[in-house]
Amino acid sequence: MKNLMVWFVNQDSTTRGAVLALAGVIGAALITGIFSVITTVLGKSKKSSKENSTSINQTIGTNNGNQILVNGDYNETSNALSAEDASKIAIGLFMDNFPKLQVEARKVAKERADEFCQEVMNKLQKCSANDYSVFKEPDTQYILYEAQKNYARFGTKEMLETLTNLVSKRVEYNKETVLKVSLDKAIEIAPMISQGQLDYLSMLFLCSRVKFDNIKTIEELKQYLELIVQKFDGADFNSSEYLNILGCLQITLLDIIDVLSETYGLNKKDVDKICPDILRQLEGDYSTSYVGTVLAIINAQQKTGFDLKMETWIQ
User: Fold this and answer.
1) Using CA atoms, how far apart are residues 134 and 239, in angstroms rounded to an integer?
2) Which residues, listed in sequence order, are joined to residue 67 by a DSSP beta bridge?
3) What does the pLDDT read at residue 39?
4) Cα 99 to Cα 62: distance, rounded to the nearest angstrom
5) How far is CA 161 from the centre of its chain?
6) Phi/psi of residue 81, each to 5°?
7) CA 295 to CA 194: how far, in whole Å?
């Protein structure tokens, strides 16, 4: 390099100019070639990335950043699906996504998932469902996995009953947008709510938003209110703020005596005389929201057998 510099300095100005021009041409060619190569590589990389992302988006859903593998060809929702096929999809969904556990724990989780799916299918068959193609939809699989996962974790009889009732209703009302969203939210938060809190929601709902046409006299109302107290005697009246945070309540000024009197067309003083003291604790600033109404109805049906249609209150 040193000898080359000495040679360059000793040349006349014409020679040095020619050398510099030649060096500039060579440098430009090198830069152009390198840029061309880089552009080609990046183009292939972007194309490959785009192809991969398309594939991924077709096979997974997300749950708070966690990927959920979707089972089945959900583009074929027009094809009817049997209860047996739907059950297989549900079990496969759970096994593909639930965290890997120790052998014994995984065995228990699998047993609970099987039990959960069987219970859901039983409930759907009781309501005369004959097309289970909704189980191929990612939206349904997402919420189904949420319910399966929570029952596999907690495994209580009450949780099984509540979640399977919610899931069967979710399948039944799959086309009703507002009700479907309310059911989805109820399924997600159900594991965060105690039985006492569910009883509070049911009691609040039945006393403030429901009218039974067969109640005509003050004596019939008295018997009804006593039944409510008996069925939901574990109601947690101190949980309103917590349930409000979860989205189960809405702001409503509630005077329980006024509401019962107006609802059934009975004298307010007579209603005040027969109203159990425990129900007076419902008075306050809340009534059930859409999500709270869903949970209240599910719990009330389990405990009383009342025939309550969700679409009456959620449209």
Assistant:
1) 36
2) 62
3) 42
4) 15
5) 17
6) -125, 135
7) 11
pLDDT in tens, 205-240: 999 999 999 999 999 999 999 999 999 999 999 999
Q: Phi/psi of residue 69, each to 5°? A: -70, 130
Write down the residue that tokens 């021009």 correspond to. Answer: 21
Q: Strand pairing partners for 66?
A: 63
Identity of the amino acid at 24? G
Q: Which residue has the higher pLDDT, 95 or 154?
A: 154
Arithmetic mean of pLDDT, 164-188: 91
Q: How far apart (Å, rounded) are the C-alpha atoms in residues 199 and 234?
A: 7
Helices (H), ranges, the chain: 2-9, 13-59, 83-97, 103-126, 138-154, 157-172, 177-189, 195-208, 218-231, 240-245, 256-264, 268-274, 290-304
For residue 50, the model assigns a pLDDT of 39
Q: Which structure tokens are listed for 272?
A: 């005040």
Backbone angles phi, psi at 27, to 5 degrees: -65, -45
**241 Cβ neighbours under 8 A, 6+ residues apart:** none
d(CA 182, CA 291): 5
Residue with tokens 């899931």: 167
- Placement of tokens 């749950």 in the chain: 63
**What is the C-alpha separation between 124 and 93, in angstroms, rounded?**
19
Residue 119 has pLDDT above 70, yes or no: yes
Specify the pLDDT at position 285. Answer: 92
Handedness of CA 143, 149, 152, 153 (dihedral sign): negative
CA-to-CA distance for 203 and 222, rounded, in angstroms? Answer: 15
**What span, in angstroms and rounded, lies between the C-alpha atoms of 165 and 4?**
88
Q: Give backbone dihedrals phi and psi of 50, rounded to 5 degrees, phi first.
A: -65, -45
Q: Are strands 60-63 and 249-254 parallel, antiparallel or unpaired?
A: unpaired
| Cα(185)–Cα(175) distance, integer angstroms | 16
Contact 19, 8 (CB under 8 A): yes
Q: Are 128 and 79 in contact (CB under 8 A)?
A: no
